[in-house]
């Protein structure tokens, strides 16, 4: 691969793939509304949560969205951080019982090599163009592996005249080599759909030579601890540190991008209320930033760890959203799809002379039934030890729906691990109309386990 003829074939095959792709029907699995009926971040004027997380193949989602009038041409910002064709496998690094475990996050190896990679990426970009607003921008985040091919493909899909910028994101992290200069930057290609794209010029400091004042007429100068500077239009080289090991925003997910990078992208091309999308959302940096800045979002990933990391991150910052999947999960206690089991103790205490009761839910032991294929033995040993000695450390988050309708999990209580701490007890007062209680538990590897119990059964057990 490497000739113009090969790229032409890539685009032709990607167009056929788009034509042959069937749209998917996604089912609502979960709805998180931290205000329980009141307006939440990212909500539309009608009060319904417009933020959506999709668990599944993004090309089927893209095809489905492109067929709907409400989404076609509506996205003001599309940011994607796809695999880079690094031909490597990536792990999430998670802390359990004082030790790190490595959990497979995603695989960047391709059976058809570079041709297969570019065809898959191109097919998705074709559909994204249909979703991009006339005044929107798409940001494609890659690095040295394939950005030169992607630039030609983007020229073909969006038009070479609609190229806006190539952002160089430079950082200090990364390995060096004795056979080349250290590769310490990523490339972000920015394209529009028309010449009428929305863009807010951002400013940055430009320090004077020797940090001394120029005193030019009509030029406003400022001074800080480093010296004198002026404010200029931001350049296309951005120096932003990667997410450090001790950073408060660190999730442990492989290739996590810093919030500062996404804040700059969201700020420069969207306004509050605009709809943003990330179809390779990973640990959820774009959704988290968009919601915090008053934008709505669509996020998608095919990895359970990525989806649950995003859910936990959004819950921790008080964002409302809905979660969709192509196939409804089997939620019965001990369901076959679950890779682990957790004990959940429920009790109900009735108040004398009242029709209300106090429900207490307490987490118990955790049993990991099936560890991921490809996990290193050292990590397996840490997990087995935690199961014996401190099983609750394997739980990353849990939530409780006290009025479960049998279809959609709508928790009124959500608990996410904060560093080392996780609340393992939930108490709530319920009325006589309490039907069922559903508890969702997520372990540190993104696996999910549900316990679903009728309230009448809890009452009978409590007596």
From TrEMBL:
The keyword Nuclease does not apply. GO terms for molecular function: DNA binding; N-methyltransferase activity. Residues 76-305 form the DNA methylase N-4/N-6 domain. It comes from the Bacteria. GO terms for biological process: DNA restriction-modification system; methylation. Gene3D superfamilies: Vaccinia Virus protein VP39 (3.40.50.150). Pfam families: N6_N4_Mtase. Keywords: Methyltransferase, Restriction system, S-adenosyl-L-methionine, Transferase. SUPFAM superfamilies: S-adenosyl-L-methionine-dependent methyltransferases. This is DNA methylase N-4/N-6 domain-containing protein. It comes from Hornefia porci.
């Amino acid at each position: 691969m490497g000739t113009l003829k090969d790229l032409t074939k890539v685009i032709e095959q990607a167009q056929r793939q788009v034509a042959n792709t069937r749209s998917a029907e996604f089912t609502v699995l979960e709805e998180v509304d931290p205000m329980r009926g009141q307006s939440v971040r990212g909500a539309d004027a009608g009060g319904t949560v417009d933020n959506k997380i999709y668990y599944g193949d993004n090309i089927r989602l893209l095809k489905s969205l492109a067929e709907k009038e409400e989404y076609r041409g509506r996205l003001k910002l599309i940011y994607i951080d796809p695999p880079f064709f690094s031909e490597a496998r990536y792990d999430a690094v998670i802390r359990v019982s004082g030790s790190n475990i490595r959990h497979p996050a995603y695989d960047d190896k391709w059976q058809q090599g570079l041709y297969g990679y570019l065809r898959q990426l191109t097919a998705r970009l074709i559909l994204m163009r249909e979703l991009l607003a006339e005044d929107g921008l798409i940001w494609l985040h890659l690095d040295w592996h394939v950005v030169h091919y992607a630039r030609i493909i983007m020229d073909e899909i969006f038009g070479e005249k609609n190229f806006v910028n190539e952002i160089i994101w430079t950082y200090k992290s990364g390995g060096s080599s004795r056979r080349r200069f250290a590769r310490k930057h990523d490339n972000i290609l920015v394209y529009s759909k028309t010449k009428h794209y929305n863009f807010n010029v951002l400013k940055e400091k430009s320090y004077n030579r020797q940090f001394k004042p120029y005193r030019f007429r009509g030029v406003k100068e400022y001074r800080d601890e480093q010296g004198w500077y002026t404010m200029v239009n931001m350049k296309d080289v951005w120096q932003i540190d990667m997410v450090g090991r001790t950073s408060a925003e660190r999730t442990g997910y492989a290739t996590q991008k810093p919030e500062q990078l996404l804040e700059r992208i969201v700020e420069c091309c969207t306004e509050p209320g605009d709809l943003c999308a990330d179809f390779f959302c990973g640990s959820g940096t774009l959704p988290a930033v968009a919601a915090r800045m008053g934008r709505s979002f669509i996020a998608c990933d095919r990895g359970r760890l990525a989806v649950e990391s995003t859910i936990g991150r959004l819950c921790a910052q008080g964002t409302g959203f809905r979660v969709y999947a192509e196939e409804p999960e089997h939620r019965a206690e001990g369901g076959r799809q679950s890779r682990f089991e957790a004990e959940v103790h429920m009790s109900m205490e009735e108040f004398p002379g009242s029709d209300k009761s106090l429900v207490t839910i307490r987490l118990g032991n955790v049993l990991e039934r099936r560890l991921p294929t490809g996990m290193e033995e050292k990590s397996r040993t840490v997990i087995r030890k935690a199961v014996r000695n401190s099983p609750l450390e394997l739980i990353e988050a849990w939530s409780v729906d006290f009025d479960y309708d049998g279809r959609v999990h709508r928790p009124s209580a959500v608990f996410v691990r904060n560093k080392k701490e996780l609340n393992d007890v939930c108490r709530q007062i319920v009325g006589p109309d309490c039907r069922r209680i559903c508890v969702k538990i997520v372990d540190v590897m993104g696996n999910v386990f549900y316990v679903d119990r009728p309230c009448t059964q809890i009452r009978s057990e409590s007596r």
